[in-house]
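Entry type: protein chain
Record version: 2
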Amino acid sequence: MLSILLAPTSAVAYGASDFVGGLASRYSRAMSVVLIAYPVCFIIFAMAAPFVGQSIELTPLLWGAASGVVALATVWFYSAMAH
């Protein structure tokens, strides 16, 4: 039952973040948008984790940090959306 609620919520959040990131990149540098968005998203997810019955573990955090290293792709994506 929880997955039925989380799936559309995830889709809306993903689409909204792309739209807002592209919009913010029109008025600011894409790198600045990414440097602000990544920590904000981490804080939101860390606050939401206990409410969905999940614990915060080290291994997924390390995988997430490793994927954050490729944030350059997000910068390019936001730059393209700004144009």
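Comment: DSSP finds four helices and no strands in the chain.
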